[in-house]
Structure formats: structure tokens, C-alpha cells
Amino acid sequence: MSMDRDAPTPLYHRIKEELRAAIRRQEYTPGSPFITQREVCERYGVSTTTAIRALNDLVAEGVLVRRRGRGTFVTDQTETDATSRRPKPTSKSRVATIGCIVHGLEGPHSTSVVSGVESMCTELGYRMLLSDSYGTPEREAQALREAVDAGVAGVVAYPVQGRANTEVYAELRRRGLPLVVVDRYLPDLPTDAVVPDNFAVGYELTSRLIELGHERIATLWSETECTSAQERLAGYKQSLREHSLPVRPEFSALRRYSTYADGTDPTYLPELLALPEPPTVLLCANGFVLAAAAKNLLELGIEIPDQMELAGMDTAGPFDPLPITTVAAVLPSRELGREAMRILAKRIAEGYDAMPLQHIVLPITVTSRGSAAGYLRAVASPRD
Question: Where does 235-300 show beta strands of DSSP type E?
């Protein structure tokens, strides 16, 4: 069945009213399974987003009910008025809320992830309860419990590093609460996850730097106990091996150099620069690390990029790192959030066990100084 896409009424609303009319015609009887999201897409030739919105509205209006692990069913109430079950403007309890818990809202990467979640919530008719864990396991655990207490229908989480809250996340699973993690995944707990191609971040940036003539590439890290860092390091090492270059422990150690909360390790850069063969470029985990490295290099009297070049693995940080880097990875930040919310909405709509767990990997892009309109050159200020 095709729908008139030029009609002024939104497409999802027309589908919703068609389905409501089918229930009134007793094509679906009370207590019987209802048409699935996939069947709505096939019958009306619409996207998953449109199908979810139509079904979500019917659930919110009391026409349908979802039974966890079983599917969606027609309610036992007989509908006589197409408008009688629409939620009153003052009744906000019928609008489903999802929890979005992020481990830091500084810099373009994390804020773009949240923007993606929020934009998809708007399209699908959800509210978003946003919490910042500030990178601490304690605050993350508190935010997860607050989301559950608030009655959220599901959670999108950008987790902190480490395994401290594995049991807290496992409790969400036991409750049957849909959970999608974004940017990295939980190594000890199977969940839906949407991540950038972190292996490609390390591999592509290292390969590009080697093509530019660099053979001594040192890595600088922030988080060390998360899958994103571990996969980027694996990509870095693989590129070195493929180019017949040694994997030098002093350059590849997964050791924390800097975080935006704790500052830098003051001994790290001097140790690297004092080596008989020091690095010619610093491959920085994110924009916070890159900013700290640039500051520390200038304090040591080293000019950028004349005496040391910088490369960035992502854009999380206090400013856009691209103008000061030789090469940099650009993550699909907003699409990470949108895709995570798409999966969460599908879990909420169809039940937790309606489909296998998904691990979605989105492609990254690499930019270089040669493709930029301009770049920054940093030099140390003269000292009195």
C-alpha cells in the first residue's frame, strides 16, 4: 500500500490512523498480536523511523500495549472515537523518556553524540533525560540509578573507562531495560553498541604519517582502560608492522599522559624527547591530550610543527584540533548518537528479545594539513 507523501498531514500520523481504523474494523482483535514494525515498513513502504513513531503513538494513546519478550498487542478496550484516546495536552506521563548518560560534555565529540541522540528523540517522540557522569564511575552509577528511578524506557550510555560499573549495567539487563552503549563497548557485558571504527583511527592515521615520512611516531593517551583506546593502539601497531617498522615500547605504551580533569604527566614528554632517537610526531588520543601536548611542547621551547608535529585521533577537546595537526581523524559523532537512539527505540518498540544484539561500527574520515584552508604554527614566547 502506498501513501501520498505530498499530503500535508505527517506520514506517521496517517499510518497511525490507518492502523487505528483497522483495529476498529476488528482486523486485529483485543489481546491479539499486532502488526510488527517491519510489517508496517513493508506494507506502507516507509522507513523504520516512521513506523516506530506511528506504533509508539498508538502505545502512548492506549490503543496498543507492549509485553516484554512477547511483542505488541491490541488493548482490551473497545475504541469508538478516533480522538478519545489521544493524550491530553496536560498529560505528559504518556510520553516515553529515555536516559542519556555521557562521561563528559566538553568538546565537540561528546556534545555531537548527545545532539544526535536528542535529534532522533525529537523525530520519534521521546523525551531525553541527560546526565553527565564527569568521567567518574561513582557519578555514572548514580546517574544510571536515577534514570531507572525516573522510569525511563531505555538508556543510551557513553560509559566511563574501566569495569567498575559492569554490575550496575548488568542490573539494567536483568530488569529488561533496553541499553545501547556508544563510542566504546563494555568488554565484560554483551549489549547493543554503536562505535566509530577505532581500529581504523589508529591504522589510517599511522599509515598517513608514515607516507609523510615519519618513522618514529609516539602515542599519547588519556583513557587507557576502554575498548576505544585499545582498538586504536591495535590499529597503530598493525600499520607499523605492515610498513616493516618496529613497534617501540617507549612509543606505544598505553600509559596515561593527560586528562582534562587531572592535567598532564610532567615527566612524559621530557622522557620521550631525551631518547637517542626521539619521536618526530605525537599521535594524540584526543583534543584534550593534543592541547596539553602543545602547551607542554611550547613550555619546553619546541615549535609546532617545525620541530615537532602533532596528530589527533578524535575531536574531543577544548577546541577544534584540526588547524594545528598534520593529520587528524574525524569521527561520525552525531550519527553515533542517532544510530544508538534508533536501536534503542526499536528495542523499546518490539521488546528486548525481538532481535539479536547489534554491534554497529561506523566509518571515520581522515583529514590532512594539505587539504585544509590553513593551519596554525605555534612558537614559544621569548622569555625575559
Answer: 258-259, 263-264, 281-284
Give CA–CA dist 341/150, Å, rounded.
18
What SS3 class is residue 351?
coil
In this prediction, residue 148 carries a pLDDT of 92
251 & 339 share domain: no
127, pLDDT greater than 90: yes
Domain that holds residue 323: 198-331
Q: How many domains does the structure of the chain reveal?
A: 3
Residues 108 and 69 occupy one common structural domain: no
Q: Which three cell numbers stand for residue 348?
A: 523499546
Residue-wise pLDDT tens digits, 351-369: 777 789 999 999 999 988 7
Q: How far apart are CA 271 and CA 64, in angstroms?
A: 65
Task: Please calculate the CA angle 27-31-37 and round it to the nearest 5 degrees.
Answer: 65
Which residues lie below 8 Å from residue 270, measured CB to CB, with a gap of 6+? 300
CATH number for 113: 3.40.50.2300
* CA dihedral for 124, 130, 133, 135, sign (positive or negative): positive
- H or E element in which residue 327 lies: strand 327-330
Q: Which residues of 204-220 are buried (b: 16+ CB within 10 A; e: fewer)?
A: bbbbbbbebebebbbbb
The contacts of residue 328 (CB under 8 Å, 6+ apart) are: 205, 311, 312, 313, 315, 321, 322, 366, 367, 368
120 burial type by CB count under 10 A (0-12 exposed, 13-18 middle, 19+ buried)? buried
Specify the pLDDT at position 130.
Answer: 95
Amino acid at 253: A
Instruction: Give the C-alpha distances (Å, rounded to integers) separating 29 from 32, 75, 183.
Output: 6, 9, 43
Any idea which of 138-152, 173-187, 279-293, 310-324 has the lowest mean pLDDT? 310-324
- Rounded CA gap, 22 and 117, in Å? 33
Backbone Cα Rg of the chain: 25
Q: What is the pLDDT of residue 23?
A: 87
pLDDT, average across residues 253-268: 80
For residues 179 and 159, is the Cβ–Cβ distance under 8 A?
no
3-state secondary structure of 26: coil
Same domain, 219 and 317: yes
Kindly give, in sequence order, each residue whose CB lies less than 8 Å from that of residue 94, ignoring residues fewer than 6 positions away.
60, 61, 87
